[in-house]
Each structure stands twice: as structure tokens, then as C-alpha cells.
Amino acid sequence: MALVKLYVRSPSAVIGLLLLLAVLAMAATAGWLYPKDPLALAGRPLVWPFSNPRFLLGTDNSGRDIAAQIFHGARISLLIGVVATVISIMIGITIGAFAGYYGGWVDTALMRVTEAFQTLPNFLLLLVLVAVFGSTITTVTVAIGIVSWPASARLTRAEFLSLRNREFVQAGRTLGLKDAKLIFGEILPNALPPVVVYASVVMAVAILLESALAFLKLSDPNVASWGNLIGAGRDVLRVQWYVSAIPGIAILVTVLAVSLVGQGLNDALNPRLKGR
Predict the structure, then answer these.
(1) pLDDT tens for residues 216-255?
(2) Which of 161, 73, 148, 72 is nearest to 117 (CA)?
(3) Residues of 88-112 as b/e, b for ≥16 C-beta within 10 angstroms?
(4) Can you tell which superkingdom this protein's organism belongs to (predicted)?
């Protein structure tokens, strides 16, 4: 309850939560409101929004219902964001935890690997992975998770470096607890709050990365994603700009919602801000 009270003290965090709940509601009701295939031809191409009651948001240049693609695309974007974030955070926590706990040559070796991943921009590395392994939605999601872990690894390492010599860790060593128990059972729970907050950043970036791939026609064309819809509208951007603008607004709202929720969690979990 205390965490909830701290969270709702921030108006921007509440707004972010409401926006995120709205996106979740879209994803949950997509199959009920639009039970047919969202990629199936629905009517005349390039119908403007609100000009036909059958197509509230109009149709794209292939005659597909934009509203159906927006609602079903919410599922894809949230799925990619959540799964890629879980993959990224799990890799980052594992590497950062071992680096921060053991130090020495283990820390040096793992941080060199982390720096090697950070040498290339994550989008460029993502393009390489997609080019090599294909552009199915599963491959794209896993690839986004793989390129997004270095920052969470560094954050976890910093938390472990500050916690590994605390009294409760020394007490655990005295009791004969094994390293795995100390790392994952004692230190990690205390190091998680900033990592959980950072997960919202990873999720927002994951949604943007998939949209960028889809815009370049490098994502899975067989799913109704917002990025694919933006890419489809690229050819008619000057005259029927709404085809790209509507999914662009959906991406903007979702990323903004996730970012505001993450900032709200940071304000609620950060002990230095609790007294404000």
C-alpha cells in the first residue's frame, strides 16, 4: 500500500498507467471487436478515417481495416516488448551479478564482452541478426532482447558492487551459504528495484526497434504490427498521410505510457525521493 501511495502522488505516473491500461484494453478486446483476420481485405483502399462507419480509422493502400490492425497490433507490440525485455533483463542480470559479485578477472572478462556489444549501435547489430537468422516475429523478438542487455548488466553490476560487502552478505558467508544462494537469494532481491525500473526503458526501446525494422520491411510481414502499417503507408505518405500517422500515434502513446510508468516506479522505489 505504501508503494501505491507513493506512486499515485505523481500525476504523470498516473497518466502513464491509464494510457498503458488503455493499450492493454485494446489488446484484450481485439479478438472480440475485430474477430476476422486484420490483414484480410476489408473494403476499398485508402478510405479516409470517419468517412465510412464500417472503417472508423479508414483503410490502408491494400484495403485493410486500419482500426483492426491497430487493435491487433497492440497485442504484437506488447508481446514483443514484454518478451524482449524479459530476455534482455535475464541476460543482463546474470552477467552483471557474476561480474559484480566475483570481481577480478571474472568482472574484467564479462565487462569486455559487454563493451564489445556496446561498440556497435544496437539497431545495427539487430539488422545483422535479422539478416542472418530471418525476420519471423520470434526471431525479431529474441534478437531485440539479445541486443538490449548491456545496460542492464552494467546497472546490475553496479548494484552488486555496492552490496557484496554489506553485513547481511558477510553474515551469509559466515553461515556457510553457497555463492549461488548469496547471489540470487540475498543480494539480487536488494539489487532489483533499479533494474525493474530500467526494464520499462528496455520495453519502450524494444517496441521502437521492432517498428523501425517493420518500417524498413525487415520484420515479419505476416503479423499485424504497427510498424508494418507505418511501412505500408510510406508509399502514400504525401497524400494519405493518416495511414502512417495513426499507427505512429499508437506507438507514441504506448512508449510514452511505458516511460511514465517507469518514471513513476523510480520515484516510488527510490529512497532518496520518498521524503519529497
Answers:
(1) 888 888 888 898 898 888 888 888 999 999 999 999 999 9
(2) 148
(3) bbebbbbbbbbbbbeeeeebeebbe
(4) Bacteria
pLDDT category at 1 given cuts 50, 70, 90 is: low
pLDDT band at 271 (very low <50, low <70, confident <90, very high): low
Cα radius of gyration rounded to whole Å, the chain: 22
Report pTM: 0.89
Contacts of 242 (CB under 8 A, 6+ apart): 48, 49, 57, 58, 66, 233
Sorted by sequence, the CB contacts under 8 Å of residue 271 that are 6+ apart come out as: none
The torsion angles phi and psi of 237, rounded to 5 degrees, stand at: -65, -35
Nine-digit cell string for 123? 539497431
Which domains are present in the chain? 1-40+53-248+260-273 (1.10.3720.10)
Kindly report the number of other CB atoms within 10 A of residue 65's CB atom.
Answer: 26
Report the alpha-carbon angle 211-215-217, nearest 5. 115
Q: How far is 140 from 130, CA to CA, in rounded Å?
A: 7
Give the C-alpha separation, 234 to 225, whole Å: 15
